[in-house]
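Render this sequence as a predicted structure.
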Amino acid sequence: MMLTITSILFILIGLALGGGGLWLVLLGGSIFYLFAGAMFIITAVLLLMRKAVALWVYAALVVAALIWAVWEVGFDWWQLGPRGGLIILLGLWLLTPWIRRPLGFASPTGAVYSANPWPLGVPVIIAILVAGYSMTTDPHDLAGDLPKDVVAAAPPFGGDVPDGEWHQYGRTPFGQRYSPLDQINATNVKDLKEVWRYQTGDVKRPDDVGETTYQVTPLKVNDTLYLCTPHNWAIALDAKTGKEKWKFDANSGMNPDRQHQTCRGITYYQDTATAAGQPCADRVYLPTSDARLIALDAVDGKVCENFADKGTLHLETGMKYNPAGYYYSTSPPVAVAGKLIIGGAVNDNYSTQEQSGVIRAFDINTGALLWNWDSGNPDVTTPLPQGQTYTTNSPNSWSVLSVDEGLGMVYIPLGNQVPDQLGMNRSANVEKFSSSVVALDINSGQLKWVQQFVHHDLWDMDVPAQPVLFDMTKPDGSVVPALVAPTKQGDIYVLDRRTGEAIIPFKEIPAPGGAIPEDKTAPTQPISDLTFSPDPLQEKNMWGVSLFDQLACRIEFHRYKYEGRYTPPSLQGTIVYPGNFGTFNWGSVAVDPERQIMFGMPTYLAFTSRLVPAADIPPKGQDEKCSEQGLNRNDGAPYGVFMGPFLGPLGIPCQAPPWGYVAGVDLRTGKIAYMHKNGTVHDMTPLPLPFKVGVPGIGGPMMTKGGVAFLGAAVDNYLRAYDVTSGAELLQARLPAGGQATPMTYTTSDNKQYVVMVAGGHGSVGTKPGDYVIGYTLSSD
């Protein structure tokens, strides 16, 4: 009976592998699956015939599978396992007495002998030993140390921010995400304990859009933390206890046409012209998802009605088209030289008639418009006259800006004109400014320089991250004001922030062609000498938890158009790698300006995009909610686009892990010192498995003078601390929800250093939603 059931199982496996394998061969892929399918069927037939040679045939499959697997991927356990796991398990089954006994023979004396196990047993044992050895190796790990020497003893951090405070999104206007505090260090961080926990009460709702996320980095000024929530509440907490001081609800409502429902931060400002203790002498500015900027008294949260229109600045002013829910500010403005400088986010790929990506400066006290830089009309920055409008659908800046007040420049990461995947009819200014960093004069808004990182962007490769500013000490002792720009495609550009010229060189390399007939591609694309850009995908990089879903991913790989980075969009469907989440995203990187090193979290997750003719796009449903994944309609364009992560039939990435790392870089040499896998599959599977695969993430790191980097971000719900020098993991603290925010640190009057992490989840990556703000400090036990 067992033999018959086993034979039927082998036939079914053989048919599945053989059929899929034949399809793969016809697509130009590996012949192994077709071979394996045939070997399963032959083994099944021999089992039904009760022939002991069945074990020999299956042994040949085990040997062939082992040789093939090691040839393709070496001794990488996470790739060997799916290739050989099923084959070895079934080999062990064939070695059991209830299979071998019917395959044996009876002697003349009547004694019954089972089939000889060794022809199959030896290959199975060898395969198990190879698997065991592969578990002890990590071919993806790069070990090394960053230099410990302090290069600049008193570097500029940007702005006048006390060491124990955190006044702007990246702590200072330089956006370094670096704190000069060292009470918590690499030796004692293991003793960090949670000391308070606050819940905002702003939780994800059933009618929320899918991209509802909690990404805020709190500010700390004096004894107060200031933060916002996804639905645009502003909250003040006691920095020592986490107790609420005040809460303000902007009542921004719900709109299913919003692509994002989030808030990354608020802006703090102290008005030195107003006497201390007077209303609104200290203010916070709250951006909202219905395109407002609201001024609040930092002491009690009341609206400062002498700002703009009774306390509210209406950011949709000057827009030719104003579809509700298509324009908002998810990132805080920068406060500098009496000005608030702000960009805005537009819905990706929903219409060709969207709001402008104009950058504007407003008087920080009155809300009066001081200048506007519109990339569609970049030379005229005087305030837009009443009745006129900004350029429709120009490249926008949805991320965080950085400022060097000494040089008089604001540095702006720019995105693309939507539709992201369609480049026809773009203006010369769009082609010049898309996917770049621009430097503008703080006082006039006039362009100082522009450096573009993708030409004729067809892949949604916005510059997503706040540029990081620091002063680089060169080997000859000279000091150069530098700017670090992380990109989605994995390049790290290090520029002279005075001119935009390269400090670490970059070059142009040939790029794939073959755009749709109406469009074109750039013949070359830039790549930095400092890059985390991955090697191009190959069929052998396709992955799954078994032979079956791996085979399905291999078939899909060949069905898509893919010629490496910058393969253009197509009707056939294109693999985009690095994908739309990018190698780096809005979480940016942390830079230590004293040691002049960088800590970051490169992520690798392939996406796909497929152009859909407008005539084939169905009417919009009443309950349809905006999302960057799935069908992007591109109303008014000849094509929509269907896009999302490149996933297998079980919903896991088709590309093999690791999908996420932590990495350290010596910025003076441009060399990557280490890369280690970051994160586990604890929250990616039904069982809480602790396997450290290296998982995707979105968020950012924070670094301290104590030699510790703190990072949430990964799709498992943990806050981690890393040794900055070596990248070794020092602490893993469980979070009650997804930690897709950037941590921060400060001290209070009790002279304790605290670390604060917001845990609220991220709709795009499916982590657990929540409303938690958690404070940690060193245990006093």
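Summary. The longest strand covers residues 192-199. Residues 35 and 146 are 48 Å apart (CA to CA).
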